[in-house]
TrEMBL record:
Organism in which the protein naturally occurs: Thioalkalivibrio halophilus
Annotated GO biological process: cell wall organization; peptidoglycan biosynthetic process; regulation of cell shape
GO terms for MF: aminoacyltransferase activity
InterPro entries: Acyl_CoA_acyltransferase, BioF2-like_GNAT_dom, FEMABX, PEP-CTERM_FemAB-rel, PG_Glycine_Bridge_Synth
Keyword Cell wall biogenesis/degradation belongs to the record: yes
Lineage top rank: taxon: Bacteria
Family of the protein in this entry: Belongs to the FemABX family.
PROSITE patterns named in the record: FEMABX (PS51191)
UniProt keyword list: Acyltransferase, Cell shape, Cell wall biogenesis/degradation, Peptidoglycan synthesis, Transferase
A UniProt-annotated Pfam family: Acetyltransf_6
NCBIfam families reported for this sequence: pepcterm_femAB
Protein name in UniProt: Peptidoglycan bridge formation protein FemAB
Amino acid sequence: MYQSPDNLGPPAGNTELRIHELDAQNRSRWDAFVQECPDATFFHRAGWADVMRRAFGHRTFFLYVEQGGTIVGVLPLARVRSRLFGDALTSMAFGVYGGIAARTPDAFAALDRHACRLADSLGVDYLEYRHREPHYPERPTKDLYVTFRKPLEADVEANMNAIPRKQRRMVRKGIKAGLASEFDAGIERFFPIYAASVHRMGTPVFSRLYFRTLLDVFGDDCRLLTATRNGNPVATVMTFYFRDEVLPYYGAGTPEARQVAGYDFLYWELMRRACEDGYRIYDFGRSKRDTGSFSFKKNWGFEPQPLHYEYHLVRAREMPDVNPLNPKYRYFIKAWQHLPRPVANWLGPRLSRSLG
């Protein structure tokens, strides 16, 4: 299990900061820094460069800054271009967290200056940092999203008792319904459930290639847990593991899931297994304020923590508003829900690659 180092101060000496773009020879050094830096997240890992290129064909700019031969900061960026949704340079695209992770203020500032110049030279609409903490209050900032993170107790029963009573009844309902959970090696059960679920919500589905690439790139740090009833899948979730944290990320269920508390059981099983395996942070992930997922996570006793998405505008004159709550997308959502499922599954990956 991950142990935080005692000292993350700057290297000795007053040497010059040098910025480089990640190459194959320095991937292990990059990931070693990410593993140690408190501000880094799963979405700072070098593997995301492979995911962006292999699954979506997006160009990446994974920048790191060195001082005295030691990496002191990283910034993973992906350029996502779309006629419908604009042209963005984002850290990190398709992630809920990102931005600059650095050991010193000077390293942080150097990466920001370089990224802003890069965004200007590329002529994108905007540069977006998905920070968990505010860094640039003077810049345009979006406060649409919150995250839900909570320490896990060392004892399984203590975690169950920490769940508010009403939500705990839902978990026990799933247990009484005879649900079981098991890890899957591939996406064969996950993908049909996920595709059907996002279609019901009016959202384009990601490609099978994307999910297979995540499993391939991140190995044991990306797992699929499925809740079953009488051997049939009811709900499923793709989860990321990072240091001592567990992050359920892509979850979905069948129509039966609500009847038998499949979602409640599944997320409890993930929490129970994480506790038994020694993980200490349960990250329920991002939600938009005042939505169903926001309420669901609060019902588990998690408190919302604001996310700070900060922007450097280049060609854009205002912050982007690419999200399902934007009224201009409501017609699209309604129309998408009425598409035949095979058509939605064919067309969805061509659109979702631009929804970074």
